[in-house]
Amino acid sequence: MKNYETKLKELEEQLKIFLESPLKNFDEVKDIGENGVYIVYNGDTLLYVGSTTTKGHKRMADLVSFWDNHTLHKKLLKEKLGVPKLIWCKKGEVSPYSKEQLIKDGKFTEEQFKRRDEETIELIKTFKFRFLDMASKKSRDIKNFEHFTIAVLDPGYND
To answer: What is the pTM of this model?
Structure first.
């Protein structure tokens, strides 16, 4: 077999094992600090595939922390606010899609933003997850598997 065929077969086998792993709730994954790849579901709907490649960093907890810490959180919040884009800007920076500018333009109020963010966090806490521990793998291998999984599964919130 050619090298790429061997690699494809390995990735396919790894994905099969991953997809057969049990679903977990948010409380079961929020404190994971191992490197790996994760899948997020809302009911039976596959939403997002991500990875964590910084040992000790609790990436899953980022889902419910500051809204700009995780892409999925930001995308869900953007939908709840009804805006095409939402970005965080450092003090002094300006963007038509910054929270501050959108409030200034009357797209929503600070209170509406806070309420929608709280709703987003509560929604995320109802999601189900799969996590594949890849602590023994190199960062590049983790990213390759994440991208392979995204390409094969085509989750709605991955660009």
So the answer is: 0.91
